[in-house]
Amino acid sequence: MVRGSIVALVSPMHPDGSIDWAALSRLIDWHVAQGTDGLVAVGTTGESATLGMDEHKMFIKACVDQAAGRLKVIAGTGANSTSEAIELTEVAKEVCADACLLVTPYYNKPTQEGLYQHYMAIADAVDIPQILYNVPGRTACDMSNETTIRLAEHPNIVAIKDATGDVPRGKALIDAVGDRLDVLSGDDATAMELMLVGGKGNISVTANVAPAAVKAVCDAAMAGNRAEAEAANGPLASLNKKLFLESNPIPVKWALLEMGLMESGIRLPLTPFSERYHAELRAALKEAGLIN
């Protein structure tokens, strides 16, 4: 099981859009030092949509090699083609990732039965721990709790990243499958509340810039300590919202640039963070104590 504070890691790039491998190594070492429990490589925040198959493999392997067992590496291997998702998941197993994160198929809008068969096919095909990922705001595809409950029977399906932001819905899922399947938050703004009712961690965008603080929130909330969790979460409240002023990962990559942790590269069709939002996000970074 991969639990706790899990960063949805950006893919650092040079201004020309090529991957900055040296910056990736530095970021992973920083997350280890800051106490991050795991990272997602080539997920949504990692611009999976614009990395080619060879880049996926190289990036996941680079993360596994650099982490060297110091934190867990979850490979983003979802696709809206079941065969492609299986291929990517096989790659993740080949390079020794600890688990895979599989987003619901986007654009083609499968039925609930289609979702069930999609995930079962992947779980049957590749013997590696697999994390379901439901983010209907991005995919136009919402996997029901009932479908997740069915999928929880498969031994290779170990968790779900619930990015709906709907805490009561997440609590209902925890009550139904909490002994068989970990429910992880995928929404920074509501992650604390989900963990306080039994969620087992947060796959976080905010952890890219505030890893120690997100780790503190996760530890306190998972221990059921509301006062301590709220104290740790308070300085992050504005940041959790401002990091979505434009489509993720546009703002968080600019924040990392502002913090001096990487260069400005991002790939089309994503574009650099709009200047009109700079002051808002900079103020949130200051409020969180991340820049002066």
Name given to the CATH homologous superfamily: Aldolase class I
Strand order of the largest sheet: 7-6-5-4-3-2-1-8
Tally of helical runs: 13
Percentage of helical residues? 40-55%
CATH architecture grouping: Alpha-Beta Barrel
Please tell me how large the radius of gyration is: 18 Å
The CATH top-level class label: Alpha Beta
**SSE string, helix = H, strand = E?**
EHEHEHEHEHHEHEHEHHHHH
Largest sheet: 8 strands, parallel
Uncertain stretches of 5 or more adjacent residues: none
Number of domains: 1
Distance between the termini: 37 Å
**Shape type:** globular
Number of strands: 8
Give the mean pLDDT. 97
CATH topology: TIM Barrel
Kindly estimate the percentage of residues that lie in beta strands according to DSSP: 5-15%
Q: Pairing-aware structural class of the strands and helices?
A: alpha/beta
3D structure, described in words:
It is globular, with a radius of gyration of 18 Å. The protein has about 290 residues and is α/β, with parallel strands linked by helices. The N and C termini lie far apart (about 35 Å). Helix 3 packs parallel to helix 4 (about 110-125) and helix 9 (about 210-220) runs antiparallel to helix 10 (about 225-235). The mean pLDDT is about 95. It has one domain: TIM Barrel, CATH 3.20.20. The longest helix has 15 residues, at about 55-65. It has helices at about 20-35, 55-65, 80-95, 110-125, 135-140, 145-150, 165-175, 190-195, 210-220, 225-235, 235-240, 250-260, 280-285; strands spanning about 5-10, 40, 70-75, 100-105, 130-135, 155-160, 180-185, 200-205. An eight-stranded parallel beta sheet has the order 7-6-5-4-3-2-1-8.
